[in-house]
Write a structure and sequence with these properties.
Elements: H1 41-59, H2 61-70, H3 74-96, E1 110-112, H4 117-147, H5 159-182, H6 195-215, H7 218-238, H8 272-296, H9 306-326, E2 331-333, H10 335-344, H11 349-363, H12 366-373, H13 377-400, H14 406-424, H15 426-430, H16 443-458, E3 464-470, H17 477-491, H18 495-515, E4 522-528, E5 532-540, H19 553-558, H20 562-574, E6 577-583, E7 586-594
Antiparallel strand pairs: 1-2, 3-4, 4-5, 5-7, 6-7
Helix pairs in contact: 1-7, 1-11, 2-4, 3-9, 3-11, 3-12, 4-8, 4-9, 5-8, 5-13, 5-14, 5-16, 6-7, 6-13, 8-9, 8-13, 10-13, 14-16, 17-18, 18-20
Length: 595
């Protein structure tokens, strides 16, 4: 039939099944240890320790804020912090795990997130810690259910919006880092009398990280963030910026299990909408983070791997369920760790496992967990700003990886303006009606919702189609080839997808001689909507058998009509999906190709 016949010959297994996604990945040259590589013991431990310090310093803030809203006593606060570190360890292992049903398969640790903060504070004030835990479980279930439909939602969650999510996350982290370093609130008000000293500490910490990353050797680049944080921590101790009086440093608490004991979780119907919106925001953030992880680990990256995306969102939702069951607030994938892995060049999944294990270990040692929670704010801000630079650039690259036509430009531009307006005019959005507050609770949520709504509106009329008649024995196969190239060029279809479509048309046309009623013409139709390209064949005659094994060489020699089975075998290997139906003598064959 054509060159694909080689895949059916004995001894050739290359065409037995489609190539695994990982086998098509090209390792970027700038990585020191890529996702499937295992670093030596020392780089592995140091890399994991860097992620622990970054996540711990930031993640401790959100449970503490919710505890304050709940009026929790000091003893409960310490226990919740230990439980929170245990939760970070378990959820990190879930997110980094790679399997057929669960886990992103990338270095993607978990962190407590601001997306759940407004709703969690409202729950804490209304019903205390049991209500926080119950609604956190509900939010995790929402995200877990959403993960099962991410493949179908792909047209509504395009690559450029995933990149926009990454960009907004980077901006959010960077601005938060600036506030923590300078001691200036979002409203522009100075906080504390020693703001100048704190700012100098944060700036010095950033300077050390930048110098080591830009001019340092390979090893210094690996350890640059950790060196900056350790030196900053030591300087903060000598400057009297850390109060150790609240730390659990006695021998009696050196080893203590993080046991939950805050009552049974409870739920509130009135809080379901805010927590559901927060869960959707976390799923969108996970999409952006996983997209970035895929991109930085594959030099040939073109589009998101939806299996990894689905399993990663499922793990993210399951991690939030675990958080609620253990007795703490919701978690989400951490963009800061993605930025850190870009900065250091270490994206090994094993580092994620080590990070999770370290969090679990520290959760049993209260003095260590308190040291993480006591990290000065300027150091938190320094690491946020440093990692935000890499996250924002990665988001821009993801956005521009697609051809930005007028529609996409408007979607991203308006969404970016809406996100910035939340930064610039917080008072305006604070006065919004209560039912709108979840949608405008943060710049990232507002910007993402704007992008999603505009993308949904602009999809009206986006589907394009074209059709051509073909008569076997009269028309040349080049007619179909020219038709495919012409339509693919007009629509901007991916070249490799269009080549598979053309091969499928040629295979079908060659088989039509054996099944079509003489004197009739077949019609080939193409339908394109950016994310899928469908080839539809309509003709009069016998039906194609679209299932069953390939014919043997002996069957091909004995029966010429077995060539139709060979054609179907070839098409099934070209198309994502193939189906057939009939209406009397009229046959319909549909071949779907993911774009």
């Amino acid at each position: 039939m054509n060159v694909f016949l080689r895949g059916l010959l004995p001894g050739n297994d290359a065409a037995a099944k489609p190539a695994d996604h990982r086998s098509r990945v090209q390792r970027p040259s700038n990585l020191v240890y890529s996702v499937d590589e295992r670093p030596p013991a020392v780089p592995l431990l140091v890399s994991a320790l860097q992620h622990v310090m970054v996540i711990g310093s930031i993640g401790a803030v959100f449970p503490l804020l919710v505890l304050d809203a709940a009026g929790a006593p000091r003893a409960m606060t310490g226990q919740v912090m230990s439980i929170s570190l245990l939760t970070l360890g378990l959820s990190t292992l879930l997110l980094c795990y790679r399997s057929r049903l669960l886990g992103s398969g990338y270095l993607l640790p978990s962190v407590f997130t601001a997306a759940y903060l407004p709703a969690s504070i409202a729950a804490a004030k209304e019903g205390g810690w049991p209500l926080v835990c119950g609604m956190t479980i509900f939010a995790g279930i929402v995200e877990l259910i959403l993960s099962r439909f991410v493949q179908r939602l792909r047209p509504y969650l395009p690559t450029e919006i995933a990149g926009f999510a990454v960009l907004m996350i980077g901006l959010t982290l960077g601005i938060l880092g600036f506030n923590l370093i300078t001691g200036v609130s979002a409203a522009g008000e100075a906080m504390g009398a020693n703001a100048g000293t704190q700012a100098l500490l944060g700036i010095a910490c950033i300077a050390i990280m930048i110098v080591l990353n830009v001019w340092g050797s390979k090893n210094l680049r690996l350890y640059g963030c950790l060196i900056g944080l350790v030196l900053g921590y030591i300087a903060a101790v000598f400057a009297g910026m850390i109060d150790f009086s609240e730390a659990r440093l006695s021998l009696s608490t050196a080893i203590y299990p993080p046991l939950p004991g805050f009552g049974w979780p409870v739920w509130s119907i009135g809080l379901m909408l805010p927590f559901a919106v927060s869960a959707v925001a976390c799923a969108l953030r996970a999409i952006g983070d996983i997209t970035t992880c895929q991109k930085i680990n594959d030099a040939n990256w073109q589009r998101p791997d939806m299996v990894s995306m689905r399993n990663g969102i499922a793990a993210d939702g399951l991690g939030t369920i675990v958080a609620g069951l253990l007795g703490t607030v919701g978690v989400n994938s951490f963009s800061g760790s993605v930025g850190l892995s870009i900065a250091t060049g270490v994206t090994s999944r094993v580092v994620g496992y080590a990070t999770g294990a370290l969090f679990i270990l520290i959760s049993f040692i209260p003095p260590l967990s308190d040291l993480v929670a006591l990290m000065p704010r300027p150091l938190m801000g320094a690491i946020l700003i440093f990692t935000a630079c890499f996250i924002m650039l990665s988001g821009m690259q993801v956005i521009t990886s697609r051809l930005m036509d007028g529609r996409r430009t408007i979607v991203i531009g308006v969404a970016l303006l809406m996100g910035f307006s939340r930064y610039l005019f917080p008072g305006f959005y604070a006065a919004a009606p209560s039912y709108l507050l979840p949608a405008v609770s943060s710049p990232m949520v507002l910007g993402l919702l704007t992008a999603l709504v505009l993308n949904l509106i602009f999809r009206i009329g986006i589907k394009k189609s074209a059709e051509i008649a073909y008569t076997p024995g009269t028309d040349a196969l080049t007619k179909l080839e020219s038709f495919g190239h012409e339509q693919g060029g007009k629509w901007g279809a991916r070249r490799d997808v269009m080549e598979r479509v053309i091969y499928a048309m040629i295979e079908s046309a060659e088989a039509l001689d054996l099944v079509m009623t003489p004197g009739h013409s077949a019609r080939f139709g193409l339908t394109f909507d950016e994310y899928q390209l469908d080839l539809n064949l309509t003709y009069e005659g016998e039906a194609f058998v679209t299932h069953g094994p390939a014919p043997s060489p002996q069957e091909l020699m004995e029966d010429e009509k077995q060539l139709t089975r060979l054609a179907v075998t070839m098409i099934r290997r070209l198309a994502t999906k193939m189906s057939a139906s009939s209406s009397g003598a009229t046959q319909h064959v549909t071949m779907n190709f993911d774009q």
